[in-house]
Amino acid sequence: MRLKSLCVALFLAGAIGMPILSATAQVVTLPAGATLQVVMETRLNTKDSKSGDAFRSHLVLPVFVDEQEVLPVGCIVEGTVVRVQGPGRVSGRAELQLRPEKMTLPSGEVLTLTATVTGGQGDENTKVTGEEGTVQASGKDGMDVRGTATTAVTGAVLGTVMAGGQGALIGAGAVGAIALIHQLFKRGNDAELPAGSELVLELNRPLSFNPTMEEVPPVRTADPEEERPRQDRRPELIR
């Protein structure tokens, strides 16, 4: 019965021109290019992680818009490992590629996130290249030809001293072959992001949301009848 009465009241208010108050959500927008500083909660590496694995991190620096904090410390950022490349024996460095996908606000609202990892640091052998969110291990990047050649020359000199010209050939060939085999069977460093690693995320698209889930207080719109001079207003019926 009360609901029916309320509907009738609203209908009559609209019919006679009375202003109806309405509330609007408080929405802010972070522009593309805005950065988020996060700390990893999940440990990732090229030895154990695989494509499709989920990761979780949280915001460690608040984000402000017009001097108002809109993203507090602790907002959860989650995503997926999209590519894993182990270290090569002859060439290639170990790499992880991450894709941030969503953010959970303290209010419980979940936002779709389109962002790229552009900076940060893993362990002492891992860095972020900034190329499509790639985390890369340091270490060898292809065969060390100069090092192998230097070792071969050293072997040649020792061979000459010990066994003359023929010894030089034997020394150079043997030591060079050993150095080459060692290079082929030597595995590079794995890329690793321990829990606690800091990353910098950059938004690829604007992000709009309601930071507090509160509504802006309704604003009463002026009644056109009240704005007219009294003598020009519609006459009221007196019964």
Any descriptors?
9-stranded antiparallel sheet; 2 domains; two-stranded antiparallel ribbon; 25% helix; 17 strands; Lipocalin; 239 residues
Walkthrough of the structure:
This protein is α+β, with helices and mostly antiparallel strands. It has 2 domains: 23-140 and 189-212, Lipocalin, CATH 2.40.128; 142-185. It contains 3 helices and 17 strands. The protein is elongated and about 50 Å long. The model is unreliable at 8-23, 141-159 and 179-185 (pLDDT under 50).
Overall 3D geometry? elongated
Query: What is the tally of helical segments?
Result: 3
Please report the first level of CATH classification, the CATH class of the largest domain.
Mainly Beta
Cα gyration radius (Å): 34 Å
User: Which percent range describes the beta-strand content?
Assistant: 25-35%
| Overall tally of domains | 2
Span of the ends, CA to CA: 29 Å
- Largest sheet descriptor: 9 strands, antiparallel
| SSE arrangement, N to C | HEEEEEEEEEEEEEHEEEEH
Uncertain segments: 8-23, 141-159, 179-185
For CATH, the homologous superfamily of the largest domain is named as Type IV secretion system, VirB10/TraB/TrbI
Structural class: alpha+beta
Mean pLDDT: 74
CATH architecture of the largest domain: Beta Barrel
Q: Enter the CATH topology name of the largest domain.
A: Lipocalin
Query: How many strands appear in the DSSP assignment?
Result: 17
The helix content is 10-25%
